[in-house]
Design brief:
Layout (H helix, E strand, L loop, with lengths): L4 H10 L1 E4 L5 H17 L19 H4 L5 E5 L20 E6 L1 H4 L1 H7 L2 H9 L5 E9 L9 E4 L1 H4 L8 E6 L10 E3 L10 E5 L5 E5 L11 E3 L6 E5 L4 E3 L10 E8 L19 E2 L2
Antiparallel strand pairs: 1-11, 2-3, 3-4, 4-13, 4-14, 5-12, 6-11, 6-13, 7-10, 7-12, 8-9
The structure holds fe (ii) ion.
């Protein structure tokens, strides 16, 4: 796949690139079906709630150990309020996301993640030795799909120099109604505001470099049809709003880093020595 000069220049200027019709509908359907099978086979007695608004939960060991595994994280509002751990609705409608190594451990996700067209896009956008570090399947469930607060991916997947690139695939149409991405065009020029790191004590913390908030305006919605690839520069501020609609908004994300850069030992995501991040080809 060959990108145009306009696309490459636009990515450098805006910090994101929208490539419609990147993935065939049948390939999106195959990923959705496979995610459904993985959830069916998951035993929800091992519970972890993922929320970017409450970092306490992120200290959960289940999350911290998930960098080289396939694990399941519930929506914050998935459970009854009385604390007995009962799901409000079917398990398949309660999962927030699956992470973080299905691109290595599941053959369906591995094939999608290592499509030659994808490696071509990453090459042309300037990563010389791309390594597939992290994958997530995001459900953005009807009615309860949670907000993802504005953030920069390099906060979570930091390298020196910074290199992470987010590859976000719309497996269903993403609209403002069902919680599409919002981005701050050009916001990748200003560096990152914080780093999310492991502490010596086995927890995690956020080290803030710049405590100023995000601008009140400037963020724009990225409404895209099924099959679209959105490439996100690691320093681009982005997020998504809650999904209060009756439609889901499934997406798959793959994060790649440049193998030529240093990967700090205090990044939250650590993979075992037997599971190094592999290339895209
Ligand atoms: Fe992100």
């Amino acid at each position: 796949m060959k990108l145009s000069h306009q696309q490459i220049d636009g990515y450098g200027r805006d910090g994101f690139l929208v490539v419609e019709d990147f993935a065939a509908a049948r390939d999106c359907d195959a990923l959705m079906a496979r995610a459904g099978e993985l959830v069916d086979a998951f035993d929800p007695s091992q519970v972890s709630i993922f929320s970017t608004t409450d970092q306490e939960h992120l200290t959960d060991q289940y999350f911290l150990d998930s960098g080289d595994k396939i694990r399941f994280f519930f929506e914050e509002n998935a459970f009854d309020g009385d604390g007995d751990g009962e799901l409000r609705q079917d398990k398949a409608l309660s999962i927030n996301k699956i992470g973080h190594a299905m691109h290595d451990l599941d053959p369906v996700f591995e094939k999608f993640s290592r499509a030659p067209d994808l490696a071509d896009v990453v090459d042309q956008l300037g990563i010389s030795d791309p390594r597939a570090l992290q994958s997530m399947y995001i459900f953005k469930q009807p009615h309860i799909g949670g907000e993802v607060v504005y953030h920069q991916d390099s906060t979570f997947l930091y390298t020196e120099p910074m290199s992470v690139m987010g590859l976000w695939f719309a497996l269903e149409d993403a609209t403002q109604d069902n919680g599409c991405l919002w981005v701050l065009p050009g916001g990748h020029m200003d560096g990152i505001k914080s780093r999310f790191v492991r502490t010596g004590g086995g927890g995690v913390e956020t080290i803030v470099h710049d405590a100023s908030g995000w601008p009140g305006d400037g963020f724009v919605p990225v409404e895209v049809p099924k099959g679209t690839l959105v490439v996100l520069h690691g320093s681009l501020p982005h997020g998504s709003k809650p999904n209060r609609s009756a439609l889901s908004r499934h997406a798959y994300t793959l994060h790649v880093i440049d193998g030529a850069c240093d990967y700090p030992a205090d990044n939250w995501l650590q993979r075992g020595a037997d599971m190094p991040a592999r290339g895209l080809r």
